[in-house]
Amino acid sequence: MHPFTFQVGVLNCFSISDGQHTYPARAFFANAPAGELAAALSRHGLAAEMVTPFNCLLVDTGAQRLLIDTGIGRRGGPSADKLRQSLAAAGLTPENVDIVVLTHAHADHIGGALNTGGQPAFPNARYLLTRAEWDFWTAERPGVNDARRKQAQTALRLLENRLYLIESDGEIAPGVRALPAPGHTPGNIAVEIVSAGSRLIYIPDVFAHPIHLEQPGWNIMGEDDPLLAINTRRRLLEMLADTDTPVFGYHMPPPGLGRVIWQERAWAWQTVSPTM
Ligand SMILES: [Zn+2]
Question: Rounded to an integer, what distance in angstroms lies between the CA atom of residue 156 and that of residue 114?
């Protein structure tokens, strides 16, 4: 298997797959009217279940290697937990990663952050997470201490002494910036990568399927603030549409690279080739 690679300016980027997992389609479009959802799924050739990929992005700046998100890990079953294998295909080991950016603390993004022994899976890396995300997940919220919160707390506590808390809007490394993308979770971030006049935007769970571009009002199940999530989705789609800015979508069709276009009075996802 050859890794999918591309350049942003002078930076080398690799799509590092953690594989995929099958979810009920409803989990991605919680508030969609049944008839409209069925029509959208059928237009995209989908049934009641959807195969969702986990495309992590590795950016090699020459000085540092950054990995953005870590996949779902073992929790994703046999079709997932491919991160280490995908790194190896790119000629890399976990030891080669200097910075791990966790866009938010859901299990399908931090699932590969720890190894089976509960140790940081990237032994030489500093892990970055927004302060808002840390505060949200580590706060005790009586009555909303669901399984997801417990999972996140366990993982974050195990990572705690490797974790550096960052602001939702600020520089991560030279040419790499966090962009606030709240709503899905309070501290969710997109990531902007700029080099030599080129730019790429990494998008986590702002849109989790191309259908979210057509229907930005459809919420992913369990979003912390559904209205804010919709506003963030619209704001980023407006920012990206028809700009030629390449976009790397964590849950977009593998290997994750595309553009946002405006066509027939709706936003749409357009897969792009690796030559930019
Ligand atoms: Zn996700």
Answer: 10
Give CATH for domain 4-271: 3.60.15.10
The secondary structure of residue 74, as a DSSP letter, is G
CA 56 – ligand 1 centroid, Å: 11
**Alpha carbon of 151 to ligand 1 centroid (Å):** 15
Instruction: Output the six-digit token pair for 83.
Output: 């991160």
Q: Helical H runs in 90-167?
A: 107-110, 131-138, 147-159
Nearest to 238 by CA among 261, 205, 210, 258: 261
CB under 5 Å of ion ligand 1: residues: 108, 205
Q: Cα of 71 to ligand 1 centre, how many Å? A: 9
Q: Is the peptide bond before 255 cis (omega within 30 degrees of 0)?
A: yes
Report the alpha-carbon distance of residue 6 to residue 9 in Å, rounded: 10
Task: Read off the pLDDT of residues 32-89 as tens digits, 9 standing for 90 and up.
Answer: 999 999 999 999 999 999 999 999 999 999 999 999 999 999 999 999 999 999 999 9
* Domain extent listing, the chain: 4-271
261 backbone dihedrals φ, ψ, rounded to 5°: -120, 165
pTM tops 0.90, yes or no: yes
Tokens of 116: 């089976």
